[in-house]
Amino acid sequence: MTKQEIRKQIIERLKELTGKKKKEQEAAILARLFQTVEWKEAKIIATTMAQEMELNTRPIIEKAWEEGKQIVLPRAKKNRIMDFVRYTSETPMETSTFGLSEPAAALPAIPKADIDMVIVPGLAFSEKGYRVGFGGGYYDRFLADYTGNTVSLVFNEQKIPSFEIESFDIPIGLLITVNETKQTI
């Protein structure tokens, strides 16, 4: 199956994951995340403002603030590059060309080396930590020289046995699912 075919299949699965079933999986995954060493040691955490079909990241943001951690959100730039910007309840947000909420263009970026943990989104995940994203390559470019912790939060519907790995694909260090927390690299 091609990545495009995988994307289509997983998007359909995620659209069907709603209500109580989705909330139960989110709760189990978040409980696991908050118990990891990666979470406990992180001071600056990168995450996203989730889309409807994705795992709700609002509890991650609120828990981080509650624990005195800083949250940074991605901002798309030219040439499929992204950076991260500190996010507070006061941060001015804009809608990107992809329809995503992201920090305003005028705000300063946080140095990559300052980010302790990146919660990497995706559509599908293999057991070896490889992911199929939304197709822009932004995270693969960002992660190519990132040395901090990478974590992905994975619904059961997003797990796939494998897919053809390309030279630019970057494995995620820790996959957290409903049933397990798995180091992959």
What's this entry about, in short?
With 185 residues, the protein is of the alpha/beta class.
Textual characterization of the structure:
With 185 residues, the chain is an alpha/beta fold. Helices cover 28% and strands 23% of the residues. The protein has five helices and eleven strands. The protein has helices at residues 3-16, 19-35, 37-41, 58-66, 138-143; strands spanning 44-46, 70-77, 81-87, 93-95, 101-103, 117-119, 124-125, 131-132, 149-153, 174-176, 181-183. The strands form three sheets. Strands 3-2-1-6-9-10-11 form a seven-stranded mixed beta sheet. A two-stranded antiparallel sheet has the order 4-5. It has a two-stranded antiparallel ribbon with strand order 7-8. It is globular. The two termini are 24 Å apart.
Q: Assess the beta-strand content as a share of residues.
A: 15-25%
Low-confidence stretches: none
Give the number of DSSP strands. Answer: 11
Oligomerization category of the chains in this entry: single chain
Question: How many separate helices?
Answer: 5
Shape descriptor reads globular
User: Distance between termini?
Assistant: 24 Å
Round the Cα radius of gyration to an integer and report it. Answer: 16 Å
Helices and strands, in order, run as: HHHEHEEEEEEEHEEE
Fraction of residues in helices? 25-40%
Instruction: Give the structural class.
Output: alpha/beta
Strand order in space, largest sheet: 3-2-1-6-9-10-11
Overall average residue pLDDT: 93
